[in-house]
């Protein structure tokens, strides 16, 4: 079980599933969700797991050169890499897509599949080794999870759901770049042009802060589009806290500060989504 968990990056997959569930709440404007929501979450997690396994299969050469990833199954030999993995990965992905299509609806399946394609093909195959924009565009995978959840009930996309998809898109770069700055030597050794490996530490911290500012401003937008004062107050407070953390990284671009900002980004997003759910549960409608 642990081997499958590691292979499919299920920690990330389950987070994406929660993001999709959040999208359903925001899309419906209510905590009362249809029974098909569970199927949607399972479909999104299945597609995310397939993408995670494909990512590890394709990047095993890079993973072997990085301290953070050298313990992954294909690197250590716990699993033998090869073309024989393409079929099971494809079956898991197709199963997730069909589950979303038949139990939910085609738009939900389409957004869930778009997340898989973005991470497995666009990010892993085309961008990661070629450009420092890799994680910027790859960040769309999380946005598609929100949209898949928002359309699961068949009601279309609300303005707040689209706004939160934008929040997820803007959240990924400062989140992942903070981690990449902490492990900058790994990315340099692996030859991956992640932004913190291309720039020096201080300019990289400057870019992270600028992106954090854009994220915080985007995090306020859902309040303008329908969420209530509770969400707005939380978005402002959480935004100020995350900007303070990013400013500390800018002043002192060390590994410890980068890891602290990485953890702060996780807390920011999680608490922001929780604030939205509580706000909606208290009866706010758009």
Quick take:
The protein contains 15 helices and no strands. The chain is mainly α.
Report Rg. 19 Å
**Which structural class is indicated by helix and strand composition?**
mainly alpha
- What is the count of structural domains? 1
Global geometry:
flat
Mean pLDDT: 94
Give a short account of the largest sheet.
none
The helix fraction, in percent, is over 70%
How many beta-strand elements?
A: 0
Contiguous helical run count: 15
Beta-strand residue fraction:
under 5%
Order of helices and strands: HHHHHHHHHHHHHHH
Report low-confidence residues grouped into runs of 5 or more.
none
Q: How far apart, in Å, are the first and last alpha carbons?
A: 43 Å
Q: What do you see in this structure?
A:
By secondary structure, the chain is mainly alpha-helical. It contains 15 helices and no strands. It has one domain (2-281). It has helices at 2-7, 10-28, 36-58, 60-63, 73-76, 86-104, 106-127, 134-138, 140-151, 159-182, 184-190, 195-198, 201-224, 229-251, 255-281. Helix 2 (10-28) crosses helix 9 (140-151) and helix 10 (159-182) packs antiparallel against helix 13.
Helix-strand blueprint:
Layout: H1 2-7, H2 10-28, H3 36-58, H4 60-63, H5 73-76, H6 86-104, H7 106-127, H8 134-138, H9 140-151, H10 159-182, H11 184-190, H12 195-198, H13 201-224, H14 229-251, H15 255-281
Keywords:
286 residues; mainly alpha; 15 helices; flat
């Amino acid at each position: 079980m642990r081997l499958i968990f590691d292979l499919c990056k299920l920690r990330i997959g389950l987070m994406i599933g929660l993001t999709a569930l959040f999208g359903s709440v925001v899309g419906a404007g209510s905590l009362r969700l249809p029974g098909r929501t569970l199927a949607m979450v399972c479909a999104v997690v299945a597609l995310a797991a397939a993408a995670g396994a494909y990512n590890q299969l394709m990047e095993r050469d890079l993973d072997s050169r990085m301290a953070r990833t050298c313990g992954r199954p294909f690197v250590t030999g716990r699993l033998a890499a090869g073309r024989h993995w393409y079929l099971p990965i494809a079956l898991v992905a197709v199963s997730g897509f069909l589950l979303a299509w038949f139990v939910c609806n085609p738009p939900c399946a389409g957004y869930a599949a778009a997340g898989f394609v973005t991470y497995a093909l666009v990010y892993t195959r085309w961008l990661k080794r070629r450009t420092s924009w890799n994680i910027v565009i790859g960040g769309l995978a999380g946005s598609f999870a929100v949209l898949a959840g928002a359309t699961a009930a068949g009601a279309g996309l609300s303005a707040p759901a689209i706004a939160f998809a934008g929040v997820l898109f803007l959240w990924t770069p400062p989140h992942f770049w903070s981690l990449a700055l902490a492990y900058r030597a790994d990315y340099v050794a692996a030859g991956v042009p992640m932004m913190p490996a291309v720039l020096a530490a201080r300019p990289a911290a400057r870019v992270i802060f600028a992106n954090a500012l854009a994220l915080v401003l985007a995090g306020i937008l859902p309040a303008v589009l329908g969420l209530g004062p509770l969400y707005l107050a939380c978005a402002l407070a959480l935004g100020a806290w995350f900007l303070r953390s990013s400013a500390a990284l800018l002043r002192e671009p060390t590994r410890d500060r980068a890891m602290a900002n990485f953890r702060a980004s996780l807390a920011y997003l999680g608490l922001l989504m929780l604030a939205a759910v509580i706000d909606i549960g208290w009866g706010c409608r758009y």
